Amino acid sequence: MVTQVRQRLSAVGRLDSWEGQAALELATNIAASKVDTLSARATATEKLGAAMDRALKGVDAPASAVQKHRDQLAERRRARAEQTG
């Protein structure tokens, strides 16, 4: 579970955010716990789901027209910089 959470957060660049770190810590605690009751594990898993939702918020959202324009401008600048430098 910890590996999967780490990989997902890394893939979208959210591992180092405080939300990502909170989700990773919850996953680590769930994986390390050997004494919890089933209801405690279910609650912890729900909290992990909520933490992942917070950490991944907006990741799959389509870019706005303004953001697309900014991305295009940034790409043109990068291409120009590569040509000249």
Topology:
Layout: H1 2-11, H2 18-32, H3 38-55, H4 65-84
Helix pairs in contact: 1-2, 2-3
Number of strands: 0
Give the quaternary arrangement of the chains.
single chain
Q: Fraction of residues in helices?
A: over 70%
Number of domains: 1
Strand content: under 5%
> Secondary-structure element sequence?
HHHH
Write a structural description.
It is a single chain. The chain is an all-alpha fold and about 80 residues long. The chain has one domain. The chain contains four helices and no strands.
Keywords:
85 residues; single chain; mainly alpha
Task: Report a brief summary of the structure.
This protein has 4 helices and no strands.
